């Protein structure tokens, strides 16, 4: 399986990182080795002093598809979830400065937290609240109604470049409030009030 991540999908997050609003969705990939095994803590990797959390709504693809039209995109997923796109912001800044790819900053081992999945039927996907707390303090407070590109257009766009396969996961971008983690932080993600994951930083 592969993980497809969308960057810059929430206006306020684009502003907080002083990025330009993109004309098309920004896409990058993480390999399956990026998935943090369930119940494991997240270990801060030795190559970064500035690891950021980014809470994101996840979409799990349920069948193979290519060149999917927006109209039929809803047939390609039944489940949604919540996760974290851990980012080595210092490494990413260097990559951006030099115009290099982001993989070292985004696709390293443990950088993809994948929480529980839920039936999409249980939620209003156009107006879905999700939150991240750090040490019991609210740090990210998102709603899918703030997405620049919604789930169905994203699936359609992504599938023009990459064949989607059963089990692939799309990370749909993070809202404002990203920030640094340090040892012993506890991150808890909730979707519509339900806990989707909790992660201890080591
Ligand atoms: Zn992200």
What do you see in this structure?
With 202 residues, the chain is of the alpha+beta class. The chain has a domain at 3-36 and 51-121 and 148-180: Alpha-Beta Complex (Fumarylacetoacetate hydrolase, domain 2), CATH 3.90.850. Helices cover 14% and strands 35% of the residues. It is built from four helices and 13 strands. The strands form three sheets. It has a six-stranded mixed beta sheet with strand order 2-1-10-4-5-7, with helices on one face. It starts with a strand and ends with a strand. The model has no long low-confidence stretch (mean pLDDT 96).
Secondary structure: elements and pairs:
Layout: E1 3-7, H1 11-16, E2 26-30, E3 51-53, E4 55-61, E5 77-85, E6 87-88, H2 89-98, H3 103-106, E7 112-119, E8 129-134, E9 137-143, H4 151-158, E10 169-171, E11 179-180, E12 186-191, E13 194-200
Parallel strand pairs: 1-10
Antiparallel strand pairs: 1-2, 3-6, 3-11, 4-5, 4-10, 5-7, 8-9, 8-12, 12-13
The structure holds zinc ion.
Zinc ion is lined by residues 5, 7, 54, 56, 85, 171, 173-174.
